[in-house]
Amino acid sequence: MQTETFSELFPLFDAADAETLEWLLSEAVERDYPSGRAVLMEDAWGNAVYFILSGWLKVRSLRNQDATTLAVLGRGDFFGEMAILDESPRSTDVIAFTPVRLLSIPAQRFIQFLFKDSQLHHRMLQLMVRRLRRTNQRAQLRQQVPATRIANVLMGLAESYGKKTDAGIEMFNLPIKDLADLSEVSVDDTTKVLEKIIEKAWIQIDAKNQLLNIVNLKQMTQLATVR
Predict the structure, then answer these.
(1) Taking all residues of the chain, what is their mean pLDDT, rounded to a whole number?
(2) Do residues 45 and 126 both lie within one domain?
(3) Which structural domain, as residue segments, surrounds residue 149?
(4) What CA–CA distances, in Å, run from 101 to 17, 18, 50, 191?
(5) Could you say which residues form the signal peptide (predicted)?
(6) Last residue of a domain, one of 139, 164, 189
(7) For residue range 40-94, what is the model confidence (pLDDT) as tens digits?
(8) 88, 120, 173, 188: which has the fewest Cβ within 10 Å?
């Protein structure tokens, strides 16, 4: 992958000089995964950092026979950067929702790259703070009604990974169970809330193409606002 294209897709690297970035990508490997495939198993964390070139994935927690979706990631995001600094065992894996293309960079090469550019330390810290704020926001959402929790999750994903169209914002249509996990709302309540939002024509579902379109951004933003 060309360094210019990579830095445009992943703003974390937009300040890195071309030569250093080219060195980082020299050992990078691109891989394609079909939908439903396990991209990263629980015993593989810490081996590399993974950059999402296309597609949607979920990070899920595994406890006995139960799996809970912890996060959903899309194009332009990456994962595995924390695990290379933490050698403790992990009970999470990453599953492809849709066909996915990833670029993986070996852990050691990524660590060396961080030491090559002091600005990256600051950018990485900003990223960690941003993700911590999202975690704190999810904790605050537990006090909100189910509709607000669900709308907040959908708007957050749409803003991070959605595609703007003339009609609104287009994104992957999450399965009910995964949306319920992220919202910490029961599957039954999640289904009821979605039915009401669809009835109000605030969102549209294209089941055939696995797409959800947020067509009334104003109403969905208001519904998603933490009170």
Answers:
(1) 89
(2) yes
(3) 144-224
(4) 25, 23, 10, 30
(5) none
(6) 139
(7) 887 778 889 999 999 999 999 988 778 999 999 999 999 988 888 776 667 789 9
(8) 88
